[in-house]
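Much of our argument rests on the idea that a fold can be written as discrete symbols. This step matters because it turns folding into a mapping between discrete strings. The record that follows shows the chain in one-letter code together with its fold in token form.
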Amino acid sequence: MTDSSEIPADSLSDVATHRDKDDREGDADPGEDAELPVDVVDEAERLARLERSVGDDGEAQAHATRRATLLAEHDFTSRIREDDGEDVLVLHPDEWHDDEENVIRTDRIDDTSRAVELPLEGTRDPDDWDAVNAHNRALVEQIRAAHGDVHGDNVASLADFVGNHYAKRIEDLTNEELEEFRTEYFVRNVWPSERQREALEKSLEYVYEQVGESTPDPHDR
């Protein structure tokens, strides 16, 4: 029997503040005072959406792990709660959670506004996700048309990586993220031909030239 001071961890409700995109962007200085900075909330939501959308269990688990690691840096954790048939991502302080019982201890909840809930049904901005993918795929075709199939295939692999793992424009990748593509994804997931491997750095140069940016240097951290 559940104690009155306990609720199931995956049923956390009525203790979280619903915060949509406009609320987050309306904060005067969200990174200064908020317990969870806006960019952390946004990234947690993005990873939760990716976890739900990918067809591969390994990739889904990777997104869940990234979300857990990100939130742990701020002493937060998350649960996905079903609310009238719709999934809601709830971010809440780790101290509220009883790991042994896998419940939320309501007697530990000092301020309900510390939690954030984010509906996961639909898209936060219906145009964002498709626009990013369309942008990256357009770059693939531009490189293929200008420089041939080997470079086009390499950039297509980069677009796959960005779409599956980061859902951002290729030129917005950080140095570390691009290095992850070079040293991990390209080697383990692409099964590149010898010509592709030899051409990879040139392919990256071409794609960043196309968008008018310098290729990120993995040593420039």
In short: Residues 6-119 form one domain. The CA atoms of residues 30 and 37 lie 6 Å apart. The mean pLDDT is 77.
